[in-house]
Design brief:
By secondary structure, the chain is α/β, with parallel strands linked by helices. The chain has two domains: 242 residues, Glycogen Phosphorylase B (Rossmann fold), CATH 3.40.50.2000; 173 residues, Rossmann fold, CATH 3.40.50. Helix content is 45%, strand content 16%.
Length: 426
């Protein structure tokens, strides 16, 4: 089923548009809530699109998956939503649904582009449904392709003595089955191949840019733009008095590469020391049934609580009700969840992976521990929980202060400057 919506352009916007108009055609696939809640890539596109709307000489057409994430009144663009024709809760049905959406999107792109007459195809996320659809449209239409790359799965486990440094070996090491590991490995190399064929790549961190270069992507097409958060919303919520209901909170996709099973091992040790220790897991994902089973078999039913996807306001309230943010993720390109936790005044305990070290390594309230070192993570969390009020207040101040440097307007300005290089290509 298709649902098409065309937002109206105000008279003030029309007045801005003097001179050549840059027409941007965007492929914006986002998984349904069973696979994951609205993630960092989706938030980044929505926020930067709001800024784009403030600029003149832009016409943006977006082909996205349904339900739409662009219903905000401040977003002015032409949109067309395509629903997935298959719904399931397993890896196989998820990949099949993505393939079907890619096929439909590739066909729909032609009719939309015929009307929009774009100068560039813009892909705000480097997942395969976005990349394949965007690449297909750019080649058929003879247009340049600009891709925002958030992260690629560079194995971080080599620092903990893993002998097999291959991407397949890395997936197997975090206990994905052989079939899933093979499919994810194939997806990785397909993504890499398409990125090499794109005209321009915008990355969110220097680490992601360097990872692309090391995997054969030409450095001349890579630009680092950064990432940001809506710090104002978090600050407004923080101004209210909130009871600390949870000792710790995790926010992210419920998946092995996000370290959720590592976190359960850590929390089992913490619960031995603090019998009443409460951990809140916020997110959704295909591994959720396995996580529920692990909680039960580990005897953590009274110590670990689950919360599905939620709005930004609800998320910030949950963060504000927690003492520590724990993030044992293995693959990250920037770490938006960490930045949001800092904006809410939380100290952060995370694995010492390159992207997090680059972005947050200088923050005194972010504690990075060696990857897969459960003992170090456990002791770090316990030390923070045992800290006095004065020390906790100082950590909170450091977190909030550090987070204020992340600004969506600065990120969007850089993105738009890069995209505008294609202004006269048509």
């Amino acid at each position: 089923m298709e649902q098409k919506t065309v937002s109206q352009v105000s008279s003030s916007e029309k007045q801005k548009r003097k001179g050549p108009v840059l027409r941007i055609f965007t492929i914006f696939f986002h998984p349904n809530s069973v696979v994951t809640a609205m993630g960092g890539a989706e938030k980044r596109f929505v926020e930067t699109l709001k800024f784009f709307n403030k600029k003149g000489n832009l016409e943006i057409t977006v082909l996205e998956s349904a339900p739409s994430l662009l219903a905000d009144a401040s977003i002015v663009c032409k949109t067309c939503s395509l629903r997935s024709s298959l719904h399931g809760k397993g890896w196989l049905s998820t990949y099949v649904s993505w393939i079907l959406w890619i096929a439909r999107a590739s066909v729909k792109s032609l009719s939309l582009a015929h009307v929009a007459r774009p100068s560039v195809v813009f892909v705000p996320n480097n997942t395969l449904p976005n990349l394949i659809s965007g690449y297909t449209a750019s080649r058929i239409l003879g247009l340049p392709l600009c891709v925002v790359t958030h992260h690629i799965d560079v194995p971080p486990l080599r620092v903990s003595g893993l002998k097999n440094h291959s991407i397949y070996g890395c997936y197997r090491s975090i206990e994905y089955s052989r079939p899933v590991s093979l499919v994810k490995t194939l997806a990785f190399y397909t993504m890499l191949s398409l990125l090499k064929k794109s005209n321009t790549i915008i990355t969110v961190s220097n680490f992601t840019a360097e990872a692309l270069k090391q995997n054969g992507v030409s450095k001349t097409k890579i630009h680092v733009s950064g990432n940001a958060i809506d710090a104002n919303l978090a600050q407004n919520i923080n101004s209210q008095t909130s009871k600390k209901t949870y000792h710790a909170i995790f926010v992210g996709r419920i998946a092995k590469e996000k370290g959720v099973f590592d976190l359960l091992k850590v929390w089992k040790e913490i619960a031995k020391v603090r019998k009443d220790a409460k951990l809140l897991l916020v997110g959704s994902g295909l591994e959720l049934p396995c996580v529920k089973e692990k909680i039960a078999t580990s005897g953590l039913e009274n110590n670990v609580l689950l919360r599905g996807s939620c709005s930004d306001k609800e998320l910030h309230n949950l963060l504000n009700s927690s003492r520590i943010f724990i993030f044992p993720s293995l693959f990250e390109g920037w770490g938006l969840a960490v930045a949001e936790a800092l904006a809410c005044g939380l100290p952060v305990v995370a694995y010492d992976i390159p992207a997090l070290k680059e972005v947050f390594g200088n923050c005194k309230s972010v504690f990075l521990v060696p990857v897969k070192n459960f003992e170090s993570m456990t002791s770090t969390v316990l030390d923070i929980l045992d800290a006095g009020e004065e020390e906790l207040h100082e950590l909170s101040y450091c977190s909030k202060t550090f987070s204020r440097q992340f600004n969506w307007e600065n990120v969007a300005e850089k993105d738009l400057e890069i995209i505008r290089t294609f202004e006269n290509t048509q």
